[in-house]
Design brief:
By secondary structure, this protein is an alpha+beta fold. The strands form two sheets. A three-stranded antiparallel beta sheet has the order 1-2-3, covered by helices on one side. A two-stranded antiparallel sheet has the order 4-5. A hairpin with a 2-residue loop joins β1 and β2. It has a single domain, classed as Small Protein B, Chain: A (Beta Barrel).
Length: 124
């Protein structure tokens, strides 16, 4: 559920969902920490990081909430887009957090790629 100024700001492509997540609030799913800046020509201002209710069917809400209650599962927004009818949509995904050993492996790979790039730069 968006206000008019939020929709206009979205249409300008100024929104950011880089730090956003979705969660349960009063038996509905809300998008939290999504940044939709103020529309400059608006008569009133909205809060840029306000929680925004996602309009879902009851069975979709139940399915997502059951999956989210499992350990380490989070609801992550992947994209905000406008459909053919002009409605703003949020694409959600269920994501599982990394384990400690996975984080160490990613860190090793990142360090190796950095060292590799440094060696190649120094050689050539």
């Amino acid at each position: 559920m968006l206000l008019g100024t939020e929709v206009k700001s979205l249409r300008e492509g100024r929104a950011s969902i880089g730090e956003a997540f979705a969660g349960e609030m009063d038996d509905v799913i809300v998008l939290q920490n999504a940044y939709i800046p103020d529309y400059p020509n608006a008569a009133f201002k909205h809060e840029p990081r306000a929680p925004r209710k996602l309009l879902l069917h009851k069975r979709e809400i139940n399915k997502l909430l059951i999956a989210q209650q499992r350990k380490g599962i989070s609801l992550i927004p992947l994209a905000i887009y406008f459909n053919d009818r002009g409605f703003a949509k949020v694409e959600l995904a269920l994501a599982e957090g990394k384990k400690a050993h996975d984080k160490r492996q990613s860190s090793k790979e990142r360090d190796w790629k950095r060292d590799q790039a440094r060696l190649m730069r120094d050689r050539g």
